[in-house]
Structures are given as C-alpha cells and as structure tokens.
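U., I forgot to send this yesterday:
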Amino acid sequence: MNAAPLLRASLLAALTAALLPLPANADSRTVTGPGGLSARARLDFQVRIPAVAQVQSAGHGRLIEIRGEDIERGYVEVAGARIAVKANMRGQKRLVAQVTAAFAKAVEIAGLPQPLVAQPAGESALQDTRRGVVDRLYDVSYRIQLAPGIAPGVYPWPVFLRVDAA
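Result:
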C-alpha cells in the first residue's frame, strides 16, 4: 500500500484550511446574511497516515532445488537475494523470520545489521532501534540448514518474513 497519494491529499487539505480566513474565535464562524439570517460553520479535520509494515524478498524463487551434494554438506547457500523493509509505525520495529518447511531445521540470514536465525519452533527477530519511518534495502544471503532424512528434489521456499512493531 502506497501512502504517498493519501499524504499529498492530506497536506493539500491542511494547506487549504490554513488559507481560509478565521475569526478571532478559531473554533467557529458566524455569517450574517440579508434579513438577519445567520449561518454558522465549523471546520474540523484530522490527518491520519495509515500504518505501513511490509517486507518483500527478491533474488530467490518460490522453489528451491536441493541436490545430493547439498544434503551431504548439510545446508544450501542462496546468495544474491534482497530484503526490502518499509514501516512507519511508532516505536521500534523488528524483522521476524520463521521457517515454514519441514525440510529446513534453521535458516541463517546474513547481510542484516544483526544476525537473524529462523527456526521452525518459534522465531528470531532483528531489532531496529531507529524510531520513525524505516525504508531499507538489504543485500542478503541465506544458509538453509537441512533436516536429516530429506531426499534431493524441489521444495517450497522455507522462510516467511514479516515486520512488526516492538
């Protein structure tokens, strides 16, 4: 979801409201017309920026091929990947990774400010201590630790990523 058009519209509304002449009492305005009729108007507005928390992965497919030599080694390396994190929630943000496939016992993600290891039971989180908007692109690599007893073949991508407010 792109918040830029909403932000522009909100800023335009705020600027328009700022240009309107206001009486000494800024809460209301009374206009007297012909015959002693009067009208009263009040302008209240709020600017709400929707919360954005998204993470996108690129550089790997939806499937991963595991070969015999990967099984002998015990892991698969995936290089040349990227993770884009966008969030505007208040407070600290954290990137959460969780293993979602039985063939992987853990996934190490390198290239982030702090090490991130995803496991099937539970999750690990990368703490981003900056406050305000986060819009970062990380060049990462994955080391997928293979579970015992798997066979060579094509498997689904084993890591699910999300960003949360801490």
